[in-house]
Amino acid sequence: MGRVNAWTTYDEKELKSLNKLNKEYIDFLSDCKTERECAKRTVELAEKKGYKSIEEVIAAGKPLKAGDKIYGLYMNKAVALFHIGKEPLENGMNILGAHIDSPRLDVKQTPVYENSEMAYFDTHYYGGIKKYQWVTIPLAIHGVVVTKEQKTIDINIGEKDDDPVFCVSDLLIHLAGDQMEKKASKVVEGENLDVIVGSIPLDSEEKNKVKAGVLKILKDNYGIEEDDFISAELEVVPAGRARELGFDRSMILSYGQDDRVCAFTSLVAMLESKTATRTSCCLLVDKEEIGSVGATGMRSRFFENMLAELINLNGNYSELALKRCLKNSDMLSSDVNAGYDPLYAEAFSKQSSSYMGNGVVFNKFTGSRGKSGSNDANAEFLAKLRKIMDDNNVHFQISELGKVDVGGGGTIAYIMALYGMNVIDCGVAVLSMHAPWEITSKADVYEAYKCYKAFLK
User: Fold this and answer.
1) Mind listing the domains of the chain with CATH numbers?
2) pLDDT tens per residue across span 88-118
3) Choosing a second label site near 56 at 20 to 30 A (CA), which of 333, 363, 408, 410?
4) Which pLDDT score is estimated for 2?
């Protein structure tokens, strides 16, 4: 099976479509750096396309009909979109499922402290990161603070040109002899990923005057008291917009492309979908990077509950109808794959790797080593997908995640496969995955969009 670089196949019309999609993608990456921001943008775009909230649809109490568009927003961090098809829901759906959380630093609930006349936010890293990559880069703070009075204060500091930024310091090379002898996992300890937030002492009677100065700024500018951090969700992420990469501008460099590259292309494909035979569904979920746990992760029942409500609207809800719908569904677990990096060739099997610019990636197994934690898609489903891709001129490639016994990784695929549905991982190759700045090919972004659109129809 010969690989084909997708760039060599595009005519002027396709290049125009590719560049338009990627311009929108760059804006999405730059504006939506947290799961809350992604969910909010998703709802805004869906409502413009005629989607109605599930609460509104339930209140109306009318049976569903082909062409109806419904969304469910859960805890402002997970979204499910449904475009009702011509067949009953019991016959199953075509599902695109991606996650909208990304590795980052989370601000703790009692974060503000002073040490040697410097003020810091105490943090706890989220997801799998190389901790040393997060020092000395400009950082922004995104999230929400909710007061005791239930007032929600949106926070986004570090993205505007006139905003301050924040950073984690590192030991200077002149004194780093011992540090340089440590393993990479120990060069920077997790407890040292604390963010510098101020250094001017407040002219007051306070003991920790620099901390007091920072708290005064938070109170005066944002209406936040120190105790309000108890009910806050603040994420520290790399500051700055996504950028085009390379002299030829063929790639994108950005934070959070795992997995917002698949979330964005799935969402666009869903919003452009026409009424089909089967119901289409787009799932954008939280907490994948820490095992899909919690109320907004894929292990939660929020998706199952939404689906039960939809079946109930037609007056034929039963546990059996719900189980049939899930079992008869087909799903692309829209998640990224490790792109082959020739500078680290020893970690990859060249024959079973995904390559930048060669199209969307199907990963049959996922998991690690002896396929532990794997979702193993069956041959019949793969054959069906091959035909869909070929019939719609989608460039695709087959890959595994690195050499056998080198490592591995998981997605939400195995969770959805528990329902008995057909599921396979299908996404975009990424270089420097889980680093503060990740790399994708514009061609692969475009091919993922084409793939998801073809799958839904």
Assistant:
1) 6-102+255-456 (3.40.630.10), 104-238 (2.30.250.10)
2) 999 999 999 999 999 999 999 999 999 999 9
3) 333
4) 62
